[in-house]
Specification:
By secondary structure, this protein is α/β, with parallel strands linked by helices. Helix content is 45%, strand content 14%. The strands form six sheets. Strands 3-2-1-4-5-6-7-8 form an eight-stranded mixed β-sheet, with helices on both faces. The protein has a seven-stranded mixed β-sheet with strand order 15-16-17-18-19-21-23, sandwiched between helices.
Length: 797
């Protein structure tokens, strides 16, 4: 792995500053440089500054750094990391490049400008320092023409996707003279330290993801025009129905910027020689007209969509591409889309792509063309189909890459329909069809291979990339039901995997967990609780609880809450170590499960919180009790301190349903402990969680000893009640908000016992359960639950 402790980012625009922020996120000291401004601002002149002042000379880099605090979503894990970013300029500070291990060029996408800057960089470059360009498609080879042989050996492309913190893809692009050791060292560094999913791309126009993605977008536009569809219809088809992000086609283009998209498409058009391919990247004239009119997307306030405000209400209008005028959005429905709602991805895709309705015909045309183009590019832009699949999943947010999609639909079935449409398949795909059961991917035990131009070759998988799906396909599933599975991770470690819809926690999952506890008694040394869904878990099954409440099944709700409390307590006091591996949304019951574990190994992008007040409840599965304990743990041992401020923090955090913005933020709030580990790479999470289990086993793990908890009691309850009364009196909260807050305060205070009374966990769990039951019986709480299920947004009533 390349050793990098200091880096320099050349260019402090949106992308450059974002890369600097992510380097700071992972602890790398970073020098952020940009040009010296040519003119003074009016403010600088008023302050009497001149071009000799550093404040002026570093203005562009300082502005890029300052912007990081204003961007949403935030590019930093926590504002404190910005202390690792120093600023400077190209005229005064290039000599400081001798002190860094990696130099990243992130200036304007212009070959001449990049070459000129790299010439200046080499004058201050120290051999051994890696130099890279973040270009999205310019030739890496041409960029270093005229540079020394040593400099060229240390040079490569490192194409981050925007925003660098959130999009995991990094395309590494070596040229013919790049030292292979540097390529491998940077690949490992990017995976382990930066948390990136890396693909090695060939030095061709737009590399992999932008080459395939741009082609797919242009194909979509042409099919739209041919079939007479509008923007709203296309986005209804090309979003989640096709296994793509919710932003679909036109909302994605508005975020990216139409000017940026045209620049990327033009780069392929200018740099390919095949007339057919050149014609494929000749964008429709209407897009060029939109750019000329300034209708370039979100950054201009108008693109394919436009937000307007009338009578205090915000409305989204969509563009008519024939008239270039905005109008009300048009709801689009088709039988194939309706049939696929609520179905798993494979079923949804089959129902859509093989349907004989307008949505099906459109989706098939776009998919067919994209699959064929991806197949043609194998060998030219990368070595195997796996790099294309990986790039499209990690860079464009597709659920399945082109060849994974082809496999899911059936290789022969898709090929036969393509042939019936008069399409010509690449010869290497025709060779695959000679196999008895053609499939681009083939698995033998847990080893994966992919079919390409040279037949089947092994897919190189990092040892840290532990996959439950691969293990299950290799026969390692040992129990489970439709909502959860038990998987043997090897080395005496069991995994409890959630895979219910949305990973909502219900009785099915608790049932499988009880199987897991029995297996831990006899067959395994420890367990990981984790999964490979979009989120760890957004909490309990709200629909189930609401239905029981509407039917007034209070005894059943009481049973369900008791059962879930027993589940979390069995996790906490298991004689075998249990490690939770949360990521993404880890809310409500999801947090209660994770917090009960002996350790949490969290992905850096973990958004953790107890959010039950948003649906009119309080945490009832042990979350209130557990967060209170975490707050009281902040009082140093042996120190006599008033616990009230710590209880107040717990009250405020839960009452306001605060959610962490990162795993680091979860530590700051108190959801996570200092002993809980943060993992940058999502694909390495389960491996690191398993390693944590094995480390606990090796260290002779013993479960925690149940301890008595000191409460603030009646007087502490009164303190919190005073705060509630003040907020209600100012009309900052509703009557029902106050009711919920009061129930929460009562539990956190430990009821009406005297301050300092020591209680056990079961006492607090009983208070939790009683408060939960009283609140769920309230009509206003049930209205909040129903509104959340219907709209995904909280109701204030």
């Amino acid at each position: 792995m390349q050793r990098i402790t200091r880096a320099a980012v050349l260019g402090a625009g949106v992308m450059g500053a974002g890369i600097a922020a992510h380097l700071a996120n992972v602890g790398i000291r970073t020098l952020l440089l940009d040009m010296v401004p040519k003119t003074l601002t009016a403010e600088e002149e008023a302050r009497g500054l001149t071009h000799q002042d550093r404040a002026v000379r570093n203005r562009l880099a300082e502005a890029g750094k300052a912007r990081l605090l204003k961007e949403s979503p935030s590019p930093v894990y926590h504002p404190s990391v910005l202390a690792l970013i120093e600023t400077g300029n190209f005229d005064d500070d290039l000599e400081r490049l001798r002190d860094v291990d990696w130099i990243i060029e992130v200036i304007v996408e212009d070959l001449a400008a990049k070459r000129a800057l790299l010439e200046r960089v080499e004058a201050h470059w120290r051999e051994g320092t890696v130099v890279s360009s973040n270009t999205s498609g310019i030739s890496i080879t041409r960029m270093v023409e005229g540079r020394s042989a040593a400099f060229r050996r240390h040079f490569l492309g490192t194409h981050f996707f925007n925003p660098p913190r959130y999009l995991p893809l990094l395309e590494i692009i070596p040229h013919a003279e790049t030292d292979p050791k540097i390529v491998e060292g940077m690949r490992r560094f990017a995976e382990v330290k930066l948390g990136k999913g890396v693909v090695i791309a060939k030095d061709t126009p737009n590399f992999i993801a932008n080459r395939i993605g741009t082609y797919g977008l242009i194909v979509t536009l042409r099919a739209m025009e041919a079939m007479g569809l509008g923007i709203d219809a296309v986005d209804a088809i090309t979003g989640e129905a096709m296994g793509r992000p919710k932003s679909a086609t036109f909302r994605t283009l508005d975020v990216v910027g139409l000017d940026t998209f045209l620049h990327v498409a033009q780069n392929v058009y200018d740099n390919v020689s095949d007339p057919k391919e050149k014609a494929a990247f000749d964008v429709p004239p209407v897009l060029k007209e939109m750019v000329d009119r300034g209708m370039i997307g979100q950054k201009a306030g108008q693109g394919f969509y436009k937000q307007v405000k009338a009578d205090g209400q915000k409305t989204i209008l969509s563009l008519d591409l024939k008239t270039l005028e905005y109008g009300p959005r048009q709801k689009f429905e088709a039988p194939s889309l309706l049939a696929g709602k609520g179905k798993n991805l494979k079923t949804r895709l089959e129902l859509l792509l093989f349907a004989d309705d307008v949505a099906g015909r459109f989706a098939w045309e776009v998919t067919k063309k994209t699959l064929l183009y991806a197949a043609e590019k194998v060998g030219e832009i990368c070595n195997t189909p796996e790099e294309i699949d990986r790039a499209m999943r990690l860079g464009f947010g597709w659920s399945l890459g082109p060849f994974e999609l082809w496999d899911a639909l059936g290789v022969r079935r898709v090929a036969e329909r393509m042939a019936a449409d008069g399409e010509t398949l690449p010869t290497w795909v025709e060779a695959l069809l000679q196999e008895p059961s053609p499939s681009f991917y083939r698995q033998d035990d847990t080893a994966l291979s992919v079919f390409g131009r040279s037949g089947y070759t092994p897919v190189v998988i990092a040892r840290e990339a532990l996959s439950l799906e691969r293990l299950k396909q290799g026969g390692r599933k040992i129990g489970g039901n439709q909502s959860a599975s038990l998987v043997d991770l090897g080395d005496g470690v069991l995994a409890l995997e959630f895979h219910s819809r949305g990973n909502a926690l219900g009785t099915d999952i608790v049932s499988v967990a009880n199987q897991a506890f029995r297996l831990l008694e006899s067959d395994f040394d420890g367990m990981v609780i984790g999964n490979e869904g979009k989120n760890f878990s957004a909490g309990a099954n709200v629909m189930l609880m609401l239905m029981e409440a509407q039917d007034e099944n209070w005894e059943e709700i009481d049973r369900l809450v008791r059962e879930f409390q027993r589940f979390t307590m069995r996790i906490k006091y298991s004689p075998r170590p249990i490690v939770a591996a949360p990521f993404g949304m880890t809310l409500g019951g999801g947090y209660e499960v994770a917090a009960a574990a002996a350790r949490m190994v969290m992905h850096a992008e973990t958004y953790m919180g107890l959010v039950e007040t948003g649906v009119g409840l309080i945490p009832g599965g042990g979350g209130t009790k557990e967060f209170l304990i975490r707050m009281l743990e902040r009082i140093p041992e042996g120190v006599k301190a008033d616990p009230q401020p710590f209880v107040n923090h717990a009250f405020e955090t839960i009452a306001l349903a605060k959610v962490s913005t990162s795993a680091e933020d979860a530590r700051r709030i108190g959801y996570a402990r200092a002993t809980d580990k943060i993992v940058i790479n999502r694909e390495h999470l389960l491996h690191e969680a398993k390693a944590a289990v094995l480390e606990l086993v090796r260290s002779g793990y013993t479960p925690p000893v149940p301890a008595k908890i000191p409460i603030v009691g009646q007087s502490g309850y009164a303190v919190m009640q005073l705060g509630i009364y003040s907020l209600k009196n100012r009309r900052a909260i509703t009557e029902h908000d106050a009711r919920i807050a009061d129930r929460l305060a009562f539990v956190l205070a430990g009821g009406r016992l005297p301050k300092g009374t020591l209680v056990d966990e079961q006492y607090l769990l009983d208070l939790e359960r009683e408060a939960f039951l009283s609140l769920i019986a309230e009509p206003k709480t049930q209205a909040r639950m129903a509104h959340m299920l219907k709209t995904g947004k909280p109701l204030r009533n």
